[in-house]
Q: What sequence folds into this?
Protein backbone atom coordinates (compact mmCIF):
# COMPACT_ATOMS: atom_id res chain seq x y z
CA UNK A 1 0.00 0.00 0.00
CA UNK A 2 1.38 3.40 -0.99
CA UNK A 3 1.80 5.98 1.79
CA UNK A 4 2.54 9.68 1.88
CA UNK A 5 5.91 9.99 3.60
CA UNK A 6 6.94 12.64 6.09
CA UNK A 7 9.30 14.13 3.50
CA UNK A 8 6.44 14.12 1.00
CA UNK A 9 4.26 16.04 3.44
CA UNK A 10 7.10 18.52 3.92
CA UNK A 11 7.23 18.92 0.14
CA UNK A 12 3.51 19.72 0.11
CA UNK A 13 4.02 22.28 2.85
CA UNK A 14 6.89 23.83 0.89
CA UNK A 15 4.71 24.09 -2.23
CA UNK A 16 1.89 25.75 -0.28
CA UNK A 17 4.36 28.12 1.37
CA UNK A 18 5.21 29.55 -2.04
CA UNK A 19 1.59 30.38 -2.86
CA UNK A 20 -0.12 33.71 -2.05
CA UNK A 21 -2.09 33.27 1.16
CA UNK A 22 -4.86 35.37 2.68
CA UNK A 23 -6.79 35.01 5.92
CA UNK A 24 -10.47 35.78 5.42
CA UNK A 25 -12.70 36.77 8.32
CA UNK A 26 -16.48 36.52 8.39
CA UNK A 27 -19.50 37.11 10.56
CA UNK A 28 -20.65 33.49 10.42
CA UNK A 29 -24.15 32.77 11.64
CA UNK A 30 -25.37 35.48 14.06
CA UNK A 31 -27.28 32.85 16.04
CA UNK A 32 -24.07 31.15 17.20
CA UNK A 33 -23.37 31.63 20.92
CA UNK A 34 -26.75 33.22 21.61
CA UNK A 35 -29.19 32.18 24.33
CA UNK A 36 -32.74 31.22 23.34
CA UNK A 37 -35.97 30.19 25.05
CA UNK A 38 -38.79 28.11 23.56
CA UNK A 39 -42.13 27.62 25.37
CA UNK A 40 -44.22 24.81 23.94
CA UNK A 41 -45.72 21.38 24.64
CA UNK A 42 -44.29 17.96 23.96
CA UNK A 43 -45.86 16.34 20.90
CA UNK A 44 -47.53 12.93 20.71
CA UNK A 45 -44.10 11.34 20.40
CA UNK A 46 -42.89 13.05 23.59
CA UNK A 47 -40.57 15.29 21.58
CA UNK A 48 -39.82 19.00 21.26
CA UNK A 49 -37.81 20.06 18.20
CA UNK A 50 -36.24 23.40 19.07
CA UNK A 51 -35.38 24.44 15.53
CA UNK A 52 -31.69 24.88 16.37
CA UNK A 53 -28.82 22.40 16.25
CA UNK A 54 -25.70 21.95 18.41
CA UNK A 55 -27.32 23.27 21.56
CA UNK A 56 -25.80 23.47 25.04
CA UNK A 57 -26.59 24.59 28.60
CA UNK A 58 -30.15 23.25 28.40
CA UNK A 59 -32.60 24.03 31.23
CA UNK A 60 -36.20 22.83 31.14
CA UNK A 61 -38.78 24.35 33.48
CA UNK A 62 -42.52 24.56 33.85
CA UNK A 63 -44.11 27.48 32.02
CA UNK A 64 -44.29 29.53 35.22
CA UNK A 65 -40.68 28.52 36.04
CA UNK A 66 -41.64 27.25 39.49
CA UNK A 67 -40.36 23.76 38.63
CA UNK A 68 -36.95 22.98 37.17
CA UNK A 69 -36.91 19.52 35.65
CA UNK A 70 -33.95 17.15 35.90
CA UNK A 71 -32.01 16.12 32.83
CA UNK A 72 -31.87 12.35 32.18
CA UNK A 73 -34.62 11.87 34.76
CA UNK A 74 -37.46 13.97 33.40
CA UNK A 75 -36.10 14.59 29.91
CA UNK A 76 -33.15 13.83 27.65
CA UNK A 77 -31.35 16.03 25.15
CA UNK A 78 -30.08 15.30 21.65
CA UNK A 79 -27.76 18.31 21.55
CA UNK A 80 -26.64 17.84 17.97
CA UNK A 81 -30.18 17.61 16.59
CA UNK A 82 -31.68 20.12 19.02
CA UNK A 83 -34.41 17.77 20.26
CA UNK A 84 -35.77 17.36 23.80
CA UNK A 85 -37.42 14.04 24.74
CA UNK A 86 -39.83 13.63 27.64
CA UNK A 87 -38.93 10.52 29.63
CA UNK A 88 -41.60 8.16 30.90
CA UNK A 89 -41.59 7.92 34.68
CA UNK A 90 -40.42 11.51 34.99
CA UNK A 91 -42.39 14.39 36.47
CA UNK A 92 -43.24 16.20 33.23
CA UNK A 93 -46.94 15.63 32.43
CA UNK A 94 -47.93 13.90 29.20
CA UNK A 95 -48.16 16.57 26.47
CA UNK A 96 -46.96 18.97 29.17
CA UNK A 97 -46.03 22.53 28.31
CA UNK A 98 -42.54 23.61 29.29
CA UNK A 99 -40.00 26.34 28.71
CA UNK A 100 -36.66 25.24 27.30
CA UNK A 101 -33.73 27.63 27.68
CA UNK A 102 -30.53 26.83 25.83
CA UNK A 103 -27.42 28.19 24.17
CA UNK A 104 -26.93 27.77 20.44
CA UNK A 105 -23.42 26.48 19.91
CA UNK A 106 -21.06 26.71 16.97
CA UNK A 107 -21.34 23.65 14.70
CA UNK A 108 -18.24 21.66 13.75
CA UNK A 109 -16.48 23.06 10.71
CA UNK A 110 -17.70 21.14 7.61
CA UNK A 111 -14.81 19.41 5.84
CA UNK A 112 -16.38 20.13 2.44
CA UNK A 113 -16.88 23.87 2.97
CA UNK A 114 -15.25 26.03 0.30
CA UNK A 115 -16.10 29.56 1.47
CA UNK A 116 -16.99 31.49 4.61
CA UNK A 117 -20.67 31.94 5.39
CA UNK A 118 -20.48 35.73 5.57
CA UNK A 119 -17.05 36.99 4.62
CA UNK A 120 -16.36 40.64 5.41
CA UNK A 121 -12.77 40.82 4.18
CA UNK A 122 -9.40 39.13 3.87
CA UNK A 123 -5.80 40.14 4.49
CA UNK A 124 -2.47 39.02 3.09
CA UNK A 125 -0.67 36.67 5.49
CA UNK A 126 2.23 38.43 7.25
CA UNK A 127 4.42 35.46 8.18
CA UNK A 128 4.79 31.85 7.05
CA UNK A 129 7.45 29.65 8.66
CA UNK A 130 8.33 25.98 8.86
CA UNK A 131 8.01 24.74 12.43
CA UNK A 132 8.55 21.47 14.28
CA UNK A 133 6.65 20.13 17.27
CA UNK A 134 8.55 20.84 20.48
CA UNK A 135 7.14 20.71 24.03
CA UNK A 136 9.48 23.59 24.92
CA UNK A 137 8.92 25.55 21.72
CA UNK A 138 8.41 29.31 21.73
CA UNK A 139 5.34 29.15 19.48
CA UNK A 140 2.16 28.22 21.35
CA UNK A 141 -1.13 27.52 19.55
CA UNK A 142 -4.19 25.44 20.56
CA UNK A 143 -2.71 22.36 18.83
CA UNK A 144 0.50 22.45 20.87
CA UNK A 145 3.96 24.01 21.08
CA UNK A 146 6.37 24.41 18.17
CA UNK A 147 9.79 25.84 17.37
CA UNK A 148 10.94 27.49 14.17
CA UNK A 149 12.72 25.19 11.73
CA UNK A 150 15.35 26.18 9.16
CA UNK A 151 14.56 23.08 7.10
CA UNK A 152 11.20 22.17 5.52
CA UNK A 153 8.76 20.27 7.74
CA UNK A 154 5.15 19.23 7.36
CA UNK A 155 4.04 22.05 9.70
CA UNK A 156 3.52 25.67 8.63
CA UNK A 157 3.15 28.47 11.16
CA UNK A 158 0.87 31.27 9.90
CA UNK A 159 0.58 34.73 11.47
CA UNK A 160 -1.76 37.50 10.29
CA UNK A 161 -2.14 40.95 11.84
CA UNK A 162 -5.27 42.88 10.91
CA UNK A 163 -4.99 46.66 10.92
CA UNK A 164 -7.11 49.06 12.96
CA UNK A 165 -9.58 49.89 10.19
CA UNK A 166 -9.89 46.34 8.79
CA UNK A 167 -13.51 45.19 9.21
CA UNK A 168 -13.98 47.81 11.92
CA UNK A 169 -17.22 47.31 13.94
CA UNK A 170 -17.83 43.82 12.46
CA UNK A 171 -18.43 40.81 14.71
CA UNK A 172 -16.12 38.01 13.59
CA UNK A 173 -17.13 34.39 14.15
CA UNK A 174 -15.23 32.55 11.39
CA UNK A 175 -11.76 32.58 9.88
CA UNK A 176 -10.56 30.88 6.71
CA UNK A 177 -7.05 30.55 5.29
CA UNK A 178 -7.11 30.74 1.49
CA UNK A 179 -4.40 29.79 -0.98
CA UNK A 180 -4.18 31.31 -4.44
CA UNK A 181 -6.45 34.33 -3.97
CA UNK A 182 -6.50 36.71 -6.93
CA UNK A 183 -7.48 40.31 -6.26
CA UNK A 184 -8.47 43.13 -8.62
CA UNK A 185 -5.27 44.09 -10.51
CA UNK A 186 -6.41 47.72 -10.74
CA UNK A 187 -6.09 48.19 -6.97
CA UNK A 188 -3.17 50.19 -5.56
CA UNK A 189 0.11 48.25 -5.25
CA UNK A 190 0.85 47.20 -1.70
CA UNK A 191 -2.79 46.96 -0.59
CA UNK A 192 -3.04 44.25 2.06
CA UNK A 193 -6.74 44.13 3.04
CA UNK A 194 -9.53 43.36 0.58
CA UNK A 195 -13.31 43.36 0.83
CA UNK A 196 -15.21 40.66 -1.12
CA UNK A 197 -15.93 42.95 -4.09
CA UNK A 198 -12.17 43.38 -4.60
CA UNK A 199 -11.53 39.62 -4.84
CA UNK A 200 -11.56 38.24 -8.40
CA UNK A 201 -10.93 34.60 -7.46
CA UNK A 202 -11.11 33.52 -3.81
CA UNK A 203 -8.72 30.59 -4.21
CA UNK A 204 -8.81 27.35 -2.25
CA UNK A 205 -9.96 27.23 1.37
CA UNK A 206 -7.14 25.47 3.21
CA UNK A 207 -8.11 25.99 6.86
CA UNK A 208 -11.45 26.84 8.48
CA UNK A 209 -12.19 27.85 12.06
CA UNK A 210 -15.40 28.91 13.80
CA UNK A 211 -14.61 30.94 16.91
CA UNK A 212 -16.21 32.78 19.77
CA UNK A 213 -17.43 36.22 18.64
CA UNK A 214 -14.71 38.85 18.21
CA UNK A 215 -16.09 42.39 18.08
CA UNK A 216 -13.74 44.44 15.91
CA UNK A 217 -13.03 47.98 16.98
CA UNK A 218 -11.11 50.76 15.21
CA UNK A 219 -8.91 51.10 18.30
CA UNK A 220 -7.60 47.51 18.27
CA UNK A 221 -5.62 45.21 16.00
CA UNK A 222 -6.35 41.48 15.87
CA UNK A 223 -3.60 38.89 15.40
CA UNK A 224 -4.40 35.34 14.32
CA UNK A 225 -1.90 32.48 14.54
CA UNK A 226 -2.27 28.92 13.23
CA UNK A 227 -0.14 25.87 12.61
CA UNK A 228 -1.24 23.95 9.51
CA UNK A 229 -0.12 20.32 9.43
CA UNK A 230 0.12 18.38 6.17
A:
Amino acid sequence: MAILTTSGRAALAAAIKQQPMHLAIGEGDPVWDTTRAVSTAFDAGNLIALGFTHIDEVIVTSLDETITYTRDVDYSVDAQAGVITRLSGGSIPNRGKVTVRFKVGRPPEPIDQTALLREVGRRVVDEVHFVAADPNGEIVVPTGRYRLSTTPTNHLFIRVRFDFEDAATSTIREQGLFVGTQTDPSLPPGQKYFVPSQVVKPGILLLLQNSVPIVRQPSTRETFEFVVTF
Notes: The chain has a mean pLDDT of 96. The CA atoms of residues 7 and 153 lie 7 Å apart. The first strand starts at residue 21 and ends at 26.
